[in-house]
């Protein structure tokens, strides 16, 4: 199920300061993103459950969704109702809120604790990644469910 931006209006926030300022057609003067808490968990084939390796928030995304859509279509790309866009990496302000394993492992020079006594620098065959997101309000939570994917071995 997809949430309509109107449903999330009470969770509107301003994104990070954009420096240098974006070109005029990308300039926004009102809150341009949402306070959506995000988590990423990793489960190895031997782990009993996924282990959260990152917690971040959509509000840290440098380019807003509207800016991404505008930039994508300014050269004539024909977006249609139902088309989906991915935001890319969303990294927060702290080490535990980095948005990609490449960042977390510092290009493979550091290990990441994935629970169950295991570590990773990069994803491996059989690993499952689980992402979840929600908005939290006074006495309620709007959840978006989970999305997951399993790394399969390369076909021969």
Structure description:
- By secondary structure, this protein is mainly β.
- Helices cover 8% and strands 28% of the residues.
- The chain contains 2 helices and 8 strands.
- The protein has helices at residues 65-73, 101-104; strands spanning 12-13, 33-34, 37-43, 51-57, 112-113, 119-120, 128-137, 140-150.
- The strands form 3 sheets. Strands 4-3-7-8 form a 4-stranded antiparallel β-sheet, with no helix packed on it.
- The radius of gyration is 18 Å and the shape is globular.
Short description:
With 156 residues, the chain is mainly beta.
Helices and strands in order:
Layout: E1 12-13, E2 33-34, E3 37-43, E4 51-57, H1 65-73, H2 101-104, E5 112-113, E6 119-120, E7 128-137, E8 140-150
Helix percent band:
under 10%
Low-confidence region ranges:
none
SSE run: EEEEHHEEEE
Distance between the termini: 36 Å
> Please, what is the average pLDDT?
91
The coarse silhouette is globular
SS content category: mainly beta
Number of strands: 8
Which short descriptors sum up this protein?
156 residues, mainly beta, four-stranded antiparallel β-sheet, two-stranded antiparallel ribbon, 8 strands
């Amino acid at each position: 199920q997809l949430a309509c931006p109107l449903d999330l209006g009470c969770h509107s926030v301003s994104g990070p300061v954009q420096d240098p300022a974006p070109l005029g057609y990308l300039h926004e003067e009102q809150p341009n993103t949402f306070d959506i808490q995000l988590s990423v968990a990793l489960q190895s084939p031997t782990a009993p459950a996924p282990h959260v390796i990152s917690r971040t928030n959509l509000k840290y995304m440098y380019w807003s969704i509207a800016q991404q859509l505008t930039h994508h279509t300014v050269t004539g790309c024909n977006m249609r109702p139902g088309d989906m866009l991915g935001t890319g990496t969303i990294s927060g302000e702290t080490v535990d809120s980095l948005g990609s394993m490449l960042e977390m492992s510092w290009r493979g020079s550091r290990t990441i604790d994935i629970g169950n006594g295991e570590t990773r620098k990069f994803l491996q065959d059989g690993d499952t990644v689980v992402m979840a997101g929600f908005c939290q309000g006074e006495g309620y939570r709007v959840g978006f469910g989970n999305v997951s994917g399993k790394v399969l071995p390369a076909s021969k």
